[in-house]
Specification:
21% strand, nine-stranded mixed sheet
Length: 259
């Protein structure tokens, strides 16, 4: 199978306008993401609605495609990008959606999401990572810190079946562990955090972008619930590397220190 990565990148951002073009260690954020992804993929493209990002990417030899500024989601932007790439002769079996604000994404994470398609039942793939253990969070406050991380509504949780397919995603803590204090839950069940990287079979990407919002998606504000509620099979690959996204200028400063 042939794989292509599309990196959606918008200039407008409520918390950090111009984020893709922010400098990080002598390179822009979007260039760092592109170079990391390109180590693993058959082809890599940036899909943007801003000419500044487009011009920047092509200036150092990257692939970029202009898309509409009116898309409601990154998935819709990726579908338009694929239509334009295919019109110029490109043909791919699986499309990988990589967030444009994660410059430390690792090739093995991309490999993990692609390997999900070794299973012929997989229509969509994503990644999950186990929440840190109490020991890793510190002997004195470990249990409380793990619970704080698990109960964070900005860290969606996943439950999977015995074959690794997603049963549900939620901002709430799932599953509920009966008969134990909440700070004991992490020791009783291996909670999994969702990592927002997706991959789709080409025909499935085309199908899901025509679906209306679902009731579960609206309730939790999680786009993947639209696909799950419509019966699509989402395979969850496990990663052991935490992602580091850049949402604010403060995040950029932390990333600079890490780099």
């Amino acid at each position: 199978m042939k794989y292509i990565a599309i990196i959606p990148a918008r200039y407008a951002s409520t918390r950090f306008p111009g984020k893709p073009l922010a400098m990080l260690g002598g390179k822009t954020v979007i260039r760092r993401v592109y170079e990391q992804v390109n180590k693993q993929m058959d082809a890599t493209w940036v899909a943007t609605d801003d000419s500044r990002i487009y011009d920047h990417v092509v200036s150092w030899g990257g692939n970029a495609v202009m898309t509409s500024p009116d898309h409601k989601s990154g998935t819709d932007r990726i579908e338009e990008a694929m239509e334009k790439i295919e019109a110029s002769g490109g043909t791919y079996d699986v499309v990988v959606n990589v967030q444009g604000d994660e410059p430390f994404i690792q090739p093995e994470q991309i490999e993990a999401v692609c390997k999900c398609f070794d299973d012929v039942q997989t229509q969509i793939a994503t990644l999950g990572i186990r929440f840190a253990s109490a020991e890793a969070c510190g002997a004195e406050t470990g249990q409380d810190e793990v619970w704080r991380r698990i109960s964070n509504a900005n860290s969606p949780k996943i439950v999977v079946d015995n074959k690794g397919f997603a049963m549900y995603f939620s901002r709430s803590v799932i599953p509920f562990v009966r008969g134990k204090e909440c700070t004991e839950w992490a020791a009783a069940y291996p909670f999994m955090k969702h990592i927002g990287m997706y991959a789709y079979r080409r025909n499935v990407l085309r199908e899901i972008t025509s679906l209306p919002q679902s009731s579960l998606e609206q309730a939790e504000s999680l786009e993947q619930l639209r696909w799950l509620q419509n019966g699509y099979k989402i395979k969850v690959g496990e990663t052991f590397t935490e992602t580091i996204g850049i949402d604010t200028p403060e995040d950029l400063a932390k990333a600079q220190a890490l780099l």
